[in-house]
Amino acid sequence: MNLDPGTIAIIQLAWSRRLGLADDALSGAPEGRRIYSLQERTGRVSFVKLFGREVFCGPEWAADRARGKSADELSRHSALASLAVEYGGRTVGSEHLCFADSFPGPVEPDEDVAVAEDHDLAVALERLCPPDDVAEASLAGKETLFIVVDDSLAEPVPLAGAGFSVRDGILADLSTLTAPTARMRGLGRYVTSIAVEEAMAAGLIPQFRAPLDNIGAARTAAGAGFVAVGVRSEVQLAG
Fold first, then answer.
1. Does 82 have pLDDT greater than 90?
2. Which SUPFAM superfamilies does this UniProt record tie to the protein (predicted)?
């Protein structure tokens, strides 16, 4: 599955702005080119590879150390952190950058469930999930929410949720969270597809950031029609 050239151009524009670059920085760079954005007054070091173009952001001392590193090395947060070990570099993480520009195929769960848009249910769902999963998804902080619930009981029980927030006026930054007891039932893919459809109906390009070591997130994204076209890693520096 490939993204439309027009979609690619919009994504490159959004990420150029996100990284503080000229609007045509990514679209105008040849494939394999690495852009160094020197930011002396920053508390983080980051690396982005998107559609074959690379961007390294951080202080000059970090950029000097990164020049001898390959994209594969810089895509791993542990390698990125090693550049800043004496500066108190703390790993934030590495993630696949995935996008979609077509409506997902019909996805229906095997069980009878309802979908709500209640923020309180998103908070309740987070309480059912491991802290690391909650931190990765940050579901309750999303602007638009969809929560799959079992409403056969007196109190609805949240099973899975997806939501998105608008970034740069163009992208719908989307995440998914599924309760451990409800996994492997297709509910994450189902609710993600709902969020994708709603984002596209609003004229946005859905974006899904799947942690490199989270196979479940990658499967959910692929099942909802996302295409992995880049990677991002980040390290925070000691204040």
1. no
2. Acyl-CoA N-acyltransferases (Nat) (SSF55729)
Residue 166 belongs to domain with CATH number = 3.40.630.30
Q: Are 125 and 215 within one domain?
A: yes
Cα 44 to Cα 167: distance, rounded to the nearest angstrom = 20
Please check the confidence at residue 155 and state whether its pLDDT lies above 80: yes
For 180-217, b/e burial (b = at least 16 CB within 10 A) is eebeebbbbbbbbbbbbbbbbeeebbbbbbbbbebeeb
Is 228 among the domain residues?
A: no
Taking only the tens place, the pLDDT of each residue in 7-49 is 999 999 999 999 999 999 999 999 888 999 998 888 889 999 9
Are residues 28 and 125 located together in one domain of the fold?
no
pLDDT at position 188, please?
93
108, part of any domain: no
Q: The tokens of 11 are what?
A: 């994504």
Where helices occur in the chain by DSSP H, the ranges are 5-18, 25-28, 60-66, 71-74, 77-82, 119-127, 131-137, 187-201, 215-223
Helix (H) or strand (E) holding 102: none
Q: Is the pTM higher than 0.90?
A: yes
